[in-house]
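Margin note: ligand = coenzyme A.
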Amino acid sequence: MTGRAEGVPTAAASAPDQRRGPTYRALVVDHGDLSGAHLDALRVLFDGEYRATHGDWDPDRPYGYSPADVHTMLFHGSMLVGHVGFQRRRVAVGTTEVCVAGTGGVLVHPARRGEGAGRRVMSRAQETMRLDDRIEFGYLGCRPDVVSFYESTGWSRVHATERHVSMVTPGGTTASSDGPILIFDASGSRWPQGEIDLRGTPW
Ligand SMILES: CC(C)(COP(=O)(O)OP(=O)(O)OC[C@H]1O[C@@H](n2cnc3c(N)ncnc32)[C@H](O)[C@@H]1OP(=O)(O)O)[C@@H](O)C(=O)NCCC(=O)NCCS
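Resulting structure:
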């Protein structure tokens, strides 16, 4: 089980969300505390989206990306309809270091898109980041076509070269300044200038 900062919602943290539209329930669970039923539901969600193109979902190495150590899951009734994962890591930026919540596995079931589920599950993940004293920023890379989703949920673009461990070449590193990088300020800090070294594979 992953360690947790004081005051951070535990695996049991769950709250009905009835602000508008269908009733959703968000659940925040440490990776090591995922039940068999959680894993089954996540597998159905991810395989439905990516199995044809990327193969089977592996919770400990999802499509070659780094695994999450905290999962935010959004249920509609008993059905898992959305997920945001993050993993804490100290990364290098320019001449300094920051602790990020490397964010990945952002996915809403196709039948539930466009009705606010993505915003809800992201908002709960961001609340968890803010309550964790160790985390300074959320961090993610994404396709250009989804930048506006992240911008409308509180993320901001940073323009920098990013270096990370290759997902395909063992021992290799990759540097890129093309793909969108977005950060979420979880601590009232300013993102430092300079090249980013993720010190691991991306999320
Ligand atoms: C991206 C995704 C998570 C959005 O979920 P969603 O439930 O449809 O999003 P919401 O209904 O909560 O929309 C929130 C806002 O984001 C915008 N938005 C939603 N999907 C978007 C998309 N694909 N591209 C750009 N903007 C998008 C909405 O217009 C809305 O903005 P507004 O409130 O300012 O009008 C969902 O489309 C998805 O799972 N896509 C496939 C997986 C994927 O691409 N994940 C991202 C990997 S980096």
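Residues 14-197 form a domain with the Aminopeptidase fold (CATH 3.40.630.30).
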